[in-house]
Amino acid sequence: MEFKKNQMVELYIDDIGNEGEGIGHVDGYALFLKDVVVGDRVRAKIMKAKKKYGYARVEEVLEPSKDRVKPVCPVARPCGGCTLQHLSYEKQLEYKFRKVKNCLERIGGLENIEEKMEPVYGMDEPYHYRNKAQFPVGTDKEGNLVTGFYAGKSHQIIPCTDCAIQHPVNQEIPEKVLHYMRKNHISAYDEKTGKGLVRHIVTRVGFTTGEVMVCLVLNGNKKKLKNVEQLVDSLREIEGMTSICVNVNQERTNKILGSQIEEVYGPPYIYDYIGNVKYQIGPLSFFQVNPRQTRVLYEKALEYAQLEGEETVWDLYCGIGTISLFLAQKAKQVYGVEIVPEAIDDARLNARMNGFDNAQFFVGKAEEVLPREYEKNGVYADVIVVDPPRKGCDGKLLDTMVKMAPKRIVYVSCDPATLARDVKILGEQGYQVDKVSVVDQFGHSGHVETVCLLSRKDK
What we know:
Layout: E1 8-16, E2 22-26, E3 29-33, E4 41-49, E5 53-63, H1 89-106, E6 132-139, E7 145-150, E8 157-159, H2 169-183, E9 198-205, E10 212-218, H3 228-235, E11 241-248, E12 260-265, E13 270-274, E14 277-281, H4 291-305, E15 312-316, H5 322-328, E16 333-338, H6 341-353, E17 359-363, H7 366-377, E18 383-386, H8 395-404, E19 408-413, H9 416-428, E20 431-439, E21 449-456
Parallel strand pairs: 3-5, 10-11, 15-16, 15-18, 16-17, 18-19
Antiparallel strand pairs: 1-2, 1-4, 2-3, 4-5, 6-7, 6-9, 7-8, 9-10, 11-12, 13-14, 19-21, 20-21
Helix pairs in contact: 1-9, 2-3, 7-8
C-alpha cells in the first residue's frame, strides 16, 4: 500500500523514538508522531511520506494510553520545550533509562549492560526546576507585545509567562518587563527587519541563595531604555532581586546573547551553590539549569572518581569549573580545560572564591590542550573526567586519554548515542564499563544525562 501526504490513518503507538516522538505502524509502514505515548490509539494525518516511513500529526486520540496524563501547562503541545509532559513522570524515567540502555547495547556493543546500571535518578518534584529562562520578545498579529517561548523548530512566539518547569519567579519578571515596555512605548525587536529594541528577557535564579538576575538583551545600549528607573523600581519589588543588566546584541543572528554587558542595578552577576561549592554566575556563564539534579550528577561523578586525596585529575570540557571544583574537594590536583576564555576566567575566579589552590585551568580545545601537555610536558592523570557537548569526544582526545592510561575515566554525557560510540572506542583500547547512572535533569523533555565509569581492564 502506498501512503501519501494528507492521508488520514488510524494507528496504535507501540514505541518511542530518541527525541520522545511516538512510533506507530500501518500495514508495516512506520509513522513518527509528536504528542503521543505508547498505548495510544490515534487518528492522524500524514504530513510527509517517504518510501519506508513518514511523519504524521495527531488529529484525535481515539483511545488514550493508561500512561497518558493531562499536561500541566496549557501550551505544552505548541511550545517546543516540554515534549513529554503528556506522559506520566514514572514512564518518562523508564523511557530515559531504556534510551541509555539501548544506545549502550546497540551502538556501544555492550552485553548485559543493565546489570551495571543503577536505578534512574529522578526528581522529587519534576516542575519549577529550571534556574534560567530566555524569553523572546515580539508582537502578535495585532501588534501587541508578547513574550513566551518559541514553538518547536520555529521562531513563532507562543505567549506564555507561567512556565511549569521554570522557577516561579519567572512568571512575575516578564510580565513586569512587558508592562514597562507598554507604558513607555518601547519596541520589541523584529527579526525580519532588524529593527526594534528588546530582543530577549534572560533570567537567572540562585536556588540556594535566593538571588535573582534580570538581563534585557537589546538591539542597542541601555541609554535606549526610556525611564529605566521605572523598570528598576518595579523589578526590585521581587524578593531577592540582586542584578539588573543589559546585554547588547546588534547582530542579525539567532544567537541570543552578545558579548557586551552594561550594569543597570547591582552587580552583573549572582551567586549560587552546588553542594558546598559556591559559583559566581553572570548572563554569559554556562551553568547547569537544574541545580538540584546537577548536585546528584556531580556527586555521582565524584563517587565514580574514587578519589582518596593523592590523585591528579583532568576535567575536560570544564566550563566555569563546576565539576572541577567538586573534584578539587577530594583530589590532590585538578586540571580543567575549556575552549571559551570567559568560562576559564569564571573557573579561576570560582576556584579563588572557594579557596581551592589545587585547581589549574587551560584555555583551548580539549583535543589540542591534552595532547600538547602530555607530549610536551609529560603530564599524567590518575583519573580523567569528560563532560563533552552533544557531539561527544574528539577522536584525537580519546587517543591521548588512552595513551595517558588513567586508572579510571568518568564520562558525563548529555547524549547517550555519542556516549555509546565513545565507550565502544575506549573499550577497544582497553577500558571496560563498570557502572552507569542515568540522571533526569530535564523533566518532560527527551533529554537525559548519564554518568559512566570506565576502568582499565586487567592485562
